[in-house]
Amino acid sequence: MTTAAAHTNHAHADHDDHDHGMGHAMPLSTLIAVFVSLIALTILTVYMSNIRLGSAEIFVSMGIATVKAILVAVYFMHMRHDKPLNILLVVFSLFFMTLFIAFTLVDSSEYQGEINAAGPFVIEKSATK
Amino acid sequence: MATTEIPAGSGLVQPLGRSTAPDNFLTHTRGFASWALTLDHKRIGLMYLACTSSSFLIGGIMALILRTKLLTGNSVSWMSHDVYNHMFTLHGAVMVFLFIIPGIPAALGNFVLPIMLGAKDVAFPKMNLGSFYLWIFGAIFLVTAILAGGLDTGWTFYTPYSTATNTSVVLATMGVFVLGFSSIFTGLNFIVTIHTMRPPGMTWFRMPLFLWATYATAIIQVLATPVLGITLLLLICERLMGIGIFDPKLGGDPVLFQHFFWFYSHPAVYIMILPAMGVVSELISTFSRKPIFGYTFIAYSSLAIALLGFLVWGHHMFTSGQSKLASVIFSFLTFSVSIPSAIKVFNWLATMYKGSISFATPMCYALTFIFLFSIGGLTGLFLGALSVDVHLHDTYFVVAHFHYVMMGGTMVAFLGGVFYWWPKMTGKMYNETMGQISALLVFIGFNATFFPQFVMGARGMPRRYYNYLPEFQFFHQFSTFGSYVLGLGLSLAAFALIYSIFKGKTAPANPWGSATLEWQCSSPPPHDNFSQTPSVNHPYAVETQVYDPQLGGFRKDPNVVPLEH
Amino acid sequence: MSATMTTAATDHGHEAHGEHHAHHPFQAHHFDTMVQQFDSAKLGIWLFLITEVMFFSGLFVAYILFRVNYPEIFAYGHQFLDKTWGMVNTIVLLFSSLTMAWAVRCAQLGQQRGLITNLIITIACAAAFLGIKYIEYSHKIHEGLLPGALFSYDPNAHHGEGAGHDSHDSEHSTHVTGPMPARIGLFFSIYFCITGLHGIHIIAGMIAISWILYRSIKGHFGPEYFGPVDYVGLYWHLVDLIWIYLFPLLYLIH
Lengths: 129, 565, 254
What we know:
The structure holds three protein chains of three kinds.
Chain A: H1 2-16, H2 28-48, H3 57-76, H4 84-118, H5 122-128
Helix pairs in contact in A: 2-3
Chain B: H1 32-36, H2 41-69, H3 81-117, H4 125-147, H5 161-164, H6 169-196, H7 209-241, H8 254-288, H9 295-308, H10 324-352, H11 361-384, H12 386-392, H13 396-426, E1 428-429, H14 432-458, H15 473-503, E2 505-506, E3 545-548, E4 553-556
Antiparallel strand pairs in B: 1-2, 3-4
Chain C: H1 3-17, H2 34-69, H3 71-77, H4 83-109, H5 112-143, H6 169-174, H7 184-217, H8 227-251
């Protein structure tokens, strides 16, 4: 049993640094600190939504969301200790998503006038503005 | 017919040695369950091959019926307008979603990819089997859609018609949705397999080009197919609940559907053609008995095509009300895709230059591919030009163009690949003469069918029409007779293959003298692919393979030192 | 620490430090090492997450498109969404992410009891999230705040007779300002499509975590083999990540 226990302990100790090439146990303090920051940012974004910021509002709320997303990805999803390839894949997919959004927007904003002109709600819409 | 180097089909050589391999993947276990629940990539590949080929048969029969109708431009008693609309829709949907997209990657790719790589299996065998069953479910949905009211939207499901028609759009889109997941799982599996299952010595630049091509394909499958999924889900919601995202009456945007659809479906065109190019790279090198010319260029051009392929979807929408700005950008990018495609063609030609070319059946198909793909690709440039497209859009010119690429390209390469790997899959040699005649008939029949369609289209014959003006009758009839020749050629190819299972000669391990790894294991391969870990050389070091009359095939000559490639 | 756990962990330890080809009970035959198996599956799950990102991207495109073209329907429509419930749900989901990450840590360290506890909390949070979503949905369905053609809300006839259906009525019905724009149904189309799809992912996550929980109870996981906990965890964090964006995009608009 002593040898068995030693083995178990050994395995534990190893895992706090890199071993086996199979990931890294995130310290509990880090996890909790990240969680607290996420909650703080959530409260912040709700608070900010009560302040009129005009056109900056979307950037503020998306900025806070992105900070939160990065925190989740880097710490909860262990990206910090992951293989570069996996991180590259994520960046790659975001790049393609951006392309998808950008191209579609460039196009649709150009012909939107025609849709509005043909739509049955034109009068009502201008009334609401 | 075959040269002295490839006498395997001539029947002169008695195959010795491995003729009675004690255990291979076909005999490893027996019974229905051993196939239905198999996790062996080779068996899954064969099941895919059987199922996709059956779909091709069904789609092909529909095509022949459609062409027969078009012998005359008037109404015929045996086929109404509606039936015609349903049939060309289903011809397209079956061919695209059930045959061409899974054809080479899922059928041939599953069979050869792990062996070429030197791995025991793909990374996720259960997911692989799951992908096959998703294909089956998707096919069942599509068949149910046919029985429950048919489908008349065209394979593209364009809104607003697809939200208004009373045919079974929901069932069909569900089917395509499920097939999309099947395709994603295959692609995901291949990417992971290529990244993590390579044995020592198999570096990226020692991978056969077929693997580069399937890798590039898999990237598209993983990145683009989910967008098709969400598009079809939204279409289903639109039909069931009227969510209005694509419906201008409710403020929605019908062109948005086309953006969504083509964001997947244009890259999907490269899902179809890239693996075909990979197959052809293997065939050209093997049957020219020369290392492939410009290996790295071909490898990178596959990736370039995959990436650029994402940026050109708008060229399907030049006349759909797309903005001028977007059209100009998409047109420019469309032209840029032709560069990596041309790089491949030039490299194939350079490989053949001063090669010792053997006109074995797979090579006949590979040459057919180069010819037809070049025509298909070059006519694509006409369509990518903005002003010309306005004239040619939705005419038979477009139909001819994409048949040259999808059928003349992918289907012909698929056949070439099937003939090439058939001895490995079944352990039998087919009749070489029959194979060569089938290739000739396919070549003649294909051109006779589709070349007149270029002419018709340029003269204004619109696609998808039941009737036509008398001036187009000659071209339509020519095309229909061509399609019969094509059908005959394909039937002969199928016959040659099936006949060989029963009457074919036992195949040697390496009938063609290729240096890639799948030819180092016995034919058919053992259950675990390799009895011992294979030694990895450059995949195109064909000079290391020498013909051994005792084997009836090639073997590696230990005395030949591979050249630096 | 239970006795079973100790032996399980010990077994794993022995094998890892033993000969290279000694097979871990959960090592599939076609992998040479556990590390290769882990790397493959990890790459696989990341690729799967990418497909999820692309899957949702379609809905984000639709969202952005309509928000750019018809800002008024978003400004009006979001007033029907309850910020408080949204925030509570965000916190619930963030907490479930914490417990999931913690569960992965427990699995890596072989802490059997912590693993099981954390997984149970994660499932409970997911259920709570869906419960809150149910309250929000039933309120909207009751008032006719439905997608596209089904939209049947009448701004004039609505002053809280749906009271009692849920406790937050006051905020919805009474504080809505401005005339109702045309195309308002589109906002609810987007809302129901995105949150509905997200909800389906929550359900799928609950199923996957339950499976992991079952295997944890059977003592399958330990320092040598914790992959499935990790993979399901990654999926769960992605679901959380998507909600991190959905919350401000839908609930916090001016």
